[in-house]
Write the structure tokens for this entry.
Amino acid sequence: MKFGGTSVADEDCIGRVVKILSHYRSTGNELVVVVSAISGVTDQLHAIAAEVETARDEPPIETFIASMRARHEKVLRGVAPGEFETVMPEIDSRLDNLRTILTSVYNLRELTARSRDYIISFGERLSAVIVSAALREVGIASRPMNGCEAGILTNGQHGCAHVLPESENKIKSRIVPLLTEYVPVVMGYMGCTGDGIVTTLGRSGSDYSAAIVGAAIEADEIWIWTDVDGVMTSDPRIIDDARVLPDVSYLEAMELSYFGAKVLHPRSIEPAMVKGIPIRVKNTFSPAGPGSCVVDAEYHDRRVVKAITYIEKVSLINITGAQMIGRPGVARAIFTALAGYDVNIMMISQGSSEANISLIVDDEHLKAALVALNDVMENGYIQDVTHDRDVVAVAVVGVGMAGTPGISGRIFTALGNAGINLMMISQGSSEVNISFVVKQSDGPDAVRVLHDEFGLSEEDE
Ligand code: ASP
Ligand code: MG
């Protein structure tokens, strides 16, 4: 069971977590817990690291440590008063380490990828100690474990490390023997390289930690406890009557998490899928709710379309040039250049005239993408690059769409009738998703029109 940042945000939240865990433990389950940092803490760690690196005058390291201490102390006192005397020194010693590394970064004004990863892993180092103490407080034997101790071995890609296959046996041999004795509380988000250097798995990476651990120990199920009721048919900020999907297939969950539904980290699905382990998404604030279950069986309800996602903060890039036609190597030049600048491409479309390629990238990657494409232009592969930030992407997702004719007809007719202009369209050949780009101001309407067209608010029969 993995608990996200908002599920461990304060004393009351951790109290709910303890209730949930006590319940499932007392009904005869062996449990491994994976936790995120207390909500907001990872952001603060990122911010202080950046501040210290560039500080001209003495940066506020002491103030920062004091505020981290105050927040965690209050939570610990609230959830584990009987453990306070033994656990607070542990928190203080961790904070001492954090102070030391921040001071070194300041002295050198150098923040390497390694030191950043070490710093931003502290949120989980602190939260896991508290959650574990809270379990002991109610008489459940428990111990915290860092990602490295848990056997999560990664490559050295700091900030977005990948877990290595060797982890599987390591995790299994380190965790399984403990389960009859106590409940390990694993620090999410972090792992280490073979040399023991701390790495992190990318923002929101605790889901990935949980999936890796769950798959390695061959858990019966992987449960992701969060602050929403499950995977929804659409963004509830736009669609009032968006509905929780009781069943979602792995493929759909992957498409949905990649395309903006922030419930599950995209990389968390594959490890579970490979082993056929169901992932359940549940709300810590209403634990009795059914949640969503991500399963192997391609679940077909009468709807072929399951969900519509809405992706903001993206930019459309149009690449044109008559010399692109029939010329091999143009796509290679474009994508190699973009990869060289670490630009992540979310959508691609090329017409068969070949004189134009359109891409969607995250707004944050736009600048780098334009620099990269400028290089390609100078090499004469392409003529012109234009971009538009005033766009949103919408993805229509459902495994039932594969091989069902007429879906794109319905999508584009509904949008046309609503007077919505499409700027770009793309469908992967897996046919599990059809995505398109519209002007920002048309985005919410496009989602509403399609949510209605496919009757997504109606309960299953
Ligand atoms: N604490 C990390 C983050 O905020 C990882 C996680 O929450 O899953 O990104
Ligand atoms: Mg998070």
